[in-house]
Design a protein that fits this description.
The chain is α/β, with parallel strands linked by helices and about 325 residues long. It has a single domain, classed as Rossmann fold, CATH 3.40.50. About 45% of the residues lie in helices and about 10% in strands. The strands form two sheets. The chain has a four-stranded parallel sheet, with helices on both faces. Strands 1-2-3 form a three-stranded antiparallel sheet, with no helix packed on it. α10 runs parallel beside α16. Bound molecules: adenosine-3'-5'-diphosphate. The site of adenosine-3'-5'-diphosphate has 21 residues, from α4, α8 and α15. It comes from Deinandra increscens subsp. villosa. Pfam families: Sulfotransfer_1. Belongs to the sulfotransferase 1 family. One of its GO terms (molecular function) is sulfotransferase activity.
Length: about 325
């Protein structure tokens, strides 16, 4: 079978392109920027649109890169699978030995490689994706599958992406980006699956149209009130905490298991199968780190774009 990179080669050659953050170029497809010849790519998006069949019981989590994907993967995996590991007080939990990216599969990878570890074919299928709502495989929307969307303050996404991209560029011996270059790319909307604002807006719209199917969350809310938001999330996923569980402290256990402190310790060494170091997904895990990176002028420019594009959404970052 031809690789998806060969299948879509001619189609991709016609797309507008710009310099990329991690891969050499980004391509504009259906209004959003994508990498090419990568797991998270325009080819995997096209292949999913052409071949992926959702099931009505599937649950999808959607984020932009650096919006807290790793944290949300850990939480959703831990919530949905919690009864499997409870007897031994979570001591054999996969999140104590493996990166959350190995526990909850990225949809884009499904068309590039075989079933990942820890996925039980008999339980609810959980997938993560960065694909914008307008490019999601149609069957996900047709089935009304549950979707959890998490966004994060754009200025913190920019800072986090800048550090992540340079870590991988260093790893691949590529030239490093300056913060000014990163700022310019981001503010023009150029990031993987960006423009940032259009991605957020698209999912926010469907969350208003279908609140029973789409749960909209921010990294900031999850940071400030982790316990309550984890309980809301569990309920939305169809795995609400029982009174007994709450009394036994199960919510706290899951929050602790998925905390930055715990996961960054577990993932100090080793690489993901894609060759990305496990520790690349853990930097500071704080809100408002942008204050240490952006000039006043940069901050004002991004605030103005956010105000113009997202003013009617009432999101508090
Ligand atoms: P910072 O670079 O600001 O520290 P993603 O998972 O989407 O790639 O996002 C990575 C960001 O989430 C990084 O932000 C990382 O430190 C933070 N992060 C990773 N695990 C986290 C956790 N368990 N709790 C809070 N933040 C976490």
């Amino acid at each position: 079978m031809a690789s998806i990179f060969e299948t879509y080669k001619d189609k991709i050659a016609t797309l507008p392109k710009e310099r990329g953050w991690i891969t050499k170029d980004h391509y504009m497809y259906q209004g959003f920027w994508h990498q090419s010849r990568h797991v998270i790519s325009v080819e995997s998006t096209m292949a999913l649109q052409d071949t992926f069949k959702a099931r009505p019981t599937d649950i999808y989590m959607v984020t932009l890169p650096k919006a807290g994907t790793t944290w949300l993967k850990a939480l959703m995996f831990a919530l949905v699978n919690r009864t499997r590991y409870k007897n031994d007080g979570l001591s054999t939990h996969p999140l104590l030995v493996s990166n959350p990216h190995n526990c909850l599969p990225q949809l884009e990878m499904e068309v590039v490689r075989n079933t990942p570890s820890y996925v039980d074919p008999h339980s609810t299928r959980l997938f993560s994706t960065h694909i914008p709502v307008t490019s999601l495989p149609q069957s996900i929307l047709d089935h009304g599958c549950r979707i959890v969307y998490m966004c994060r303050n754009p200025k913190d996404v920019l800072v986090s992406l800048f550090h992540f991209a340079n870590k991988l560029r260093r790893h691949n011996s590529s030239d490093l980006l300056t913060f000014e270059e990163a700022f310019k790319m981001f503010s023009k909307g150029m990031m993987v699956n960006g423009p940032y604002w259009d991605h957020v807006k698209g999912y926010h719209k469907v969350s208003l149209e279908h609140p029973e199917n789409v749960f909209f969350l921010t990294y900031e809310d999850l940071t400030v009130d982790t316990m309550n938001n984890v309980k809301r999330l569990a309920k939305f996923l169809g795995y609400p905490f029982t009174k007994e569980e709450e009394a036994e402290g199960v919510v706290q256990e899951i929050v602790r298991l998925c905390s930055f402190e715990n996961l960054s310790e577990v993932n100090k060494h080793g690489d993901l199968r894609e060759g990305i170091p496990n520790d690349a997904f853990f930097r500071k895990g704080k809100i408002r780190d942008w204050t240490n990176h952006l000039t006043d002028e940069m901050s004002t420019i991004l605030d103005e774009i956010t105000k113009e594009k997202l003013h009617d959404l009432n999101i508090s970052f």
